[in-house]
Each structure stands twice: as structure tokens, then as C-alpha cells.
Amino acid sequence: MIKTQIQIPDHLYREAKRIAAEYEMSFAEVVRRGLEKSLPAYPPRTTAEWQPPNPVHLELRCPIDDDEWRLLANDPDYRPRHLLSAP
């Protein structure tokens, strides 16, 4: 076991001492148990670069043709061909 020294705010120290007294354990045991409870919230970070998840094919087809996307993206008044005959 490693012996170490830490600095904690007064209110945390008082609460930890209170818990130790009420539950008949040492201050060190309260700190150890607190660390054991909090460590799972911080799993080791992987060194691999983040990758987006794989896309899921939804079996849907967009009504806009592939060559129309460029026009749609650059012209705010553009209407796809299939909507030109609509009222």
C-alpha cells in the first residue's frame, strides 16, 4: 500500500470525517472507498484515433438524383426536377 498526502477542501474533509465516525471506519478507508466508487466513471482512454460509426443502410432512396445535389447545395431557389410539376 502507498502512503500519500493530499489536499482537500475543508467541507469535504469534515464530511469524510463524519462518515468515518458514523460508520466506524478510518478516514483513509472512506477515501479509498470513495475512489473505488468514482474510478469506473473514468475508464482508460484509448490511443486509437476516433472513427465515426459505420453507416446503417435504411433501404431508402432519396428522390434527388446524385447530379442534382451540387445544384441544390449552391442555389437557394433550386427545386428538384420531380417537384417542378407540383403546384
Number of strands: 0
- Please state roughly what percent of the residues sit in beta strands, choosing from under 5%, 5-15%, 15-25%, 25-35%, 35-45% or over 45%: under 5%
Q: Estimate percent helicity.
A: 40-55%
Shape: rod-shaped
Nearest-angstrom radius of gyration?
A: 30 Å
**What's the pLDDT, averaged over the residues?**
85
Query: Structural class, judged by helices and strands?
Result: mainly alpha
What is the distance, rounded to the nearest whole angstrom, between the alpha carbons of the first and last residues? 79 Å
Number of helices, counting only DSSP H or I runs of 4 residues or more: 4
Largest sheet: none
Question: Helices and strands, in N-to-C order?
Answer: HHHH
Uncertain residue segments: none
Briefly, what is this?
By secondary structure, the chain is an all-alpha fold. It has helices at 10-22, 27-38, 68-74, 81-84. It has a domain at 10-41.
